[in-house]
Amino acid sequence: MPYPDEFEGFMINELGNYKDFKKQTFKPKVFGDNDVDIKIECCGVCGSDVHTVTGGWGDAPTPLCVGHEVVGKAVKVGSKVKDVKVGDRVGVGAQVWSCLRCAQCKNDNENYCPDQVDTYGAPYPKEADPNETVSQGGYASHIRAHEYFVFPIPEAIPSHLAAPLLCAGLTVWSPLVRADVGPGKHVAIVGLGGLGHLAVMWASALGAETTVISHSPDKEADARKLGAKHFVSSGAKDWAKPLAFTFDFVLNTADMTNRFNVSEYLSILKVGCRFHQVGLPDEPIENLNPKQFMANGSSIGASHIGSRPECLAMLKLAAEKKLFPMVETIPVSEKGCAEAVDRVKKNDVHYRFTLVDFDKAFGK
Predict the structure, then answer these.
(1) pLDDT of 243-276, one tens digit each?
(2) Long-range contacts, stretch 212-217, CB < 8 angstroms, 24+ apart
(3) Do β-strands 35-45 and 186-190 pair in parallel, antiparallel, or remain unpaired?
(4) Could you tell me if 87 and 94 are in contact, meaning their C-beta atoms sit under 8 angstroms apart?
(5) DSSP element (H, E) containing 266
(6) Do the Cβ atoms of 186 and 289 come closer than 8 Å?
(7) Which of 50, 60, 321, 357 is the most exposed place for a label (fewest CB within 10 A)?
């Protein structure tokens, strides 16, 4: 194994050839005093990985190793690292660095730092790495991240179930808690997939009355199992009319908003409430008109992952209440990465994939 000078990963060399993963070596960023090296045990497969390698979200540097739901063991820690020690089981989500100095970083909004570095496909600023190395993700033997973005994994959560929480889980947790979702609130979750099933689980656990809105009627049993009190089929004619002025918060986890009748979704909000996006379509939302928001003073927004304090609170709740995602596992390999990405693209997963058996692929 080439570690520590190089890491190995399953990489895409051309966007669009999204099933052509090759096992290759790559150089990580220069190791810093606050960095942690993690030998990866498993990595979740996120919709972001698919949108990236297919080119749906635009250009990205190649060769590229995706994956930002990483769980493994810390094998090296920098001299200034305080909260991680060698041997700890830890996780990394969709961010590996921020300046930690700006107003956003100082207010637990480091996920909105203008200089933040995504876990893959983002160049480091010179202050973090004089080589301005492009970050590489978790379909790999190791990952290197600033300690602030390395999270302890509670013992009660198995690794393959912890991995999807680090991006998907946090992505829906953050907007829910920032919207003060809890007892007395009525929340709608649009879409019951990789993001949506976690959103239903969190909203219900936080005490909200939770409704699932889905175009797949056959998912009602899963929705109720996850804690939803109500299920609405968005394929039914005039489905939104009985729900006018019903919800305090609508969280859209589907990545096909460009095909929605957005006015229907806005109409189900109470006055002054928000339709919030975490599912990001490849295409823009056409014909969005300010007049659509006037009938109830509604608004539309979006968010980007979550903060460290939010992640730690989420993992604590998951461990205490045994709240785990629905996960299928696939051994990591060129074939396994291709299968996972292709099946996520086709929505052929119930409801998340975690790539496992990293020791077999990369050695112990």
Answers:
(1) 999 999 999 999 888 889 999 999 999 999 999 9
(2) 212/188, 213/188, 213/189, 213/239, 214/190, 216/192
(3) unpaired
(4) no
(5) helix 262-267
(6) no
(7) 321
pTM of the model: 0.97
Q: Could you say which DSSP state residue 154 is in?
A: P
d(C-alpha 193, C-alpha 359), whole Å = 29
pLDDT in tens, 43-102: 999 999 999 999 999 999 999 999 999 999 999 999 999 999 999 999 999 999 999 999
Which residues on adjacent β-strands are paired with residue 40? Answer: 72
DSSP state of 39: E
> For residue 204, what are its two tokens?
């219900």
Residue 157 phi/psi, 5-degree rounding, is -105, 115
**Residue 112 has which token pair?**
């909105």
Distance CA 347, CA 194 (A): 9
Of 69, 21, 19, 20, the C-alpha closest to 342 is 19
The angle that helices 308-321 and 196-205 make with each other, rounded to 10 degrees, is 80
In whole angstroms, give the CA distance from residue 360 to residue 336: 13
Return the DSSP state at 298.
-
**φ/ψ (deg, to 5) at 208:** -80, 150
3-state class (DSSP) for residue 131: coil
Cα–Cα distance, 32 to 134 (Å, whole number): 15
**Please, what is the Cα angle at 110 between 33 and 131, to 5 degrees?**
45
**Rounded distance between C-alpha atoms, residue 319 and residue 296, angstroms:** 39
Q: Give CA–CA dist 47/195, Å, rounded.
A: 9
